[in-house]
Amino acid sequence: MLGAVSAELEGSRSALDVGAGFGALTLPLARCLRQVTALEPSRAMAAALRRAVTRAGIGNVTLVRARWGETPLPVHDVVVCAHVGPLLREDSPFLRDVGAVAARAVMVVQDVGGGDDKFFFDELYPALLGRPYERRRDPDAPLRALAALGVAPRITTLEYRSDQPFATLEEACDFWMTYLRLESADARAFLRDFLVARLTRDAGGWRARFRKRARIISWRT
Q: Residue 135: its pLDDT value, please?
């Protein structure tokens, strides 16, 4: 992603990563910019980000535990927001207000169709929950919102891997049981057999391999 938006990053010194998660973009940004602020409301994600920053020996990341709009933020050269669906809805104030804290550019990233079935939900929902998995995806919502604001963004589509590693098969079962909100022993037994057939073994344990497609929507402020 950083290679795809190199023109927007060139000459920038600071970035705000909105919905930073565990730092998938925060850390690479911190390695090429002078200062990065990570905005992340989740306690667990913020803790994971702190650990990642410490392990990497990076000292130019400031973590703010809050949602967008909950706290005043200083102006940064660029603002990045990756895979935070609620902020990219057509009625979200984020796209309208983000220019106030982005001195040079804004970059938002969203998944688009054409990749693998993330987490095998198309198969698991009917088998374990008795209903199809319904996607609530409106990839053109941010484009419509930006058009209404008079913004003509640059759009870049890229493919990437979004593999999910697990140390053990039981950890993988825990992961899917949590995501699907399941508790029964029968559901866990089904998942164990299902995942043995879908996951691959590697040196670190098990891995769910997923190929994804994303769209980067960027514009100058």
A: 75
Distance CA 121, CA 128 (A): 10
R_g of the chain, CA atoms, integer Å:
19
Structural domains of the chain, ranges and CATH numbers in brackets = 6-220 (3.40.50.150)
Judge contact between 113 and 213, C-beta under 8 A: yes
Per DSSP, the residues of the chain read: -TTTTHHHHTT--EEEEET-TTTTTHHHHHHHSSEEEEE---HHHHHHHHHHHHHHT---EEEE-S-TTSS----EEEEEEES-GGGGSTT-HHHHHGGGTEEEEEEEEEEESSS--GGGHHHHIIIIISSPPPP---TTHHHHHHHHTT---EEEEEEEE--EEESSHHHHHHHHHHHHT---HHHHHHHHHHHHHH-EEETTEEEE--EEEEEEEEEE-
Tell me the C-alpha distance between 215 and 154, whole Å.
Answer: 10
Query: Side chain identity at 213, as an amino acid letter?
Result: R
Structure tokens at 188: 């866990």
Q: Which amino acid is at 166?
A: F
Length of the chain: 221
Residue ranges of the chain with per-residue pLDDT less than 50: none
Nearest to 33 by CA among 103, 124, 109: 103
How far does the chain reach from its first CA to its final CA, in angstroms?
20
pLDDT reported for residue 153 = 95
